Hints:
There is one protein chain. By secondary structure, this protein is an alpha+beta fold. Helix content is 30%, strand content 29%. It folds into two domains: 2-75, 434 Repressor (Amino-terminal Domain) (Orthogonal Bundle); 103-270, Quinohemoprotein amine dehydrogenase alpha subunit, domain 2 (Lipocalin), CATH 2.40.128. Strands 1-2-3-4-5-6-7-8 form an eight-stranded antiparallel β-barrel.
Amino acid sequence: MRTDFIANLRLLCSYHASTSEVCRKIGISRQQFTKYLSGSSFPSQRNLRVLCDFFGVEDYELLMPSDQFANIVRLRPVRGDDGPRLPPRFERLIGTAARHANQLRRFHGYYFKYFYSLSEPGMVLRSLVYIYSSENLTQYKTIERLRPFGSRASTPYIFKYDGILLLVGDRLHMIDHEVVVGNEVSQSILYLPNRNRLSQLFGLMIGVAGTEAHQPAAVKVVLEYLGKTVDRKRALAHCGLLDPAHASIDPQICEYIAMPQGLEADALRCEVPTSMLS
């Protein structure tokens, strides 16, 4: 397995101008990286995550037999430097995000994310979010399991999101892209906590309903802080669709994510006027 890892890492590096360039971009010293390439050292869990995020692969793929991994890379080329450049205004935004990286370190860690499901009306979806630093930016991953919590009757639908966390003014902005199916982008805007102790983040999420109509929709959202490290397998086991009255949900969370009185639905959905469909 260690031999395959070395071969796979060398293959990924071959897509870049030099090993030094790779080290500079990912923030790992050339001396340490050389140890990975020689097999005298294996990356820590954090550095393995950094490598995977930079090259656009999963950790289990890096440990695959080298011939199988080479076939994957041929079908899905790794990230290179020949792609289109961002317009200057977007590069400035990314630059701002990088400058705020130290301020956002306090938000690193794991969260449960709660909101009324856009595809299963009346049900609360609890998913797992991991916020971390990579490539000088604050990024995050989200995993959703669309299956009733505690049920083993069917295989859950799994959705995974990769995103970036931005601090703009006095609000947190989370922008992500669904990476399994690849047809959804969502954004959440969260209030900064008004005290030093981090427990819950409140805000609004805009996305697309998973129904056939695919309506644009907005729901209230809460991120509940779990800690810098968690038992991920156990945390994922607690994810899924729940009744709003489920005992494992903090009543304060349920109270917040409920839509204001007078709105019958649990989400604000944008319906297209019939006249526009004719």
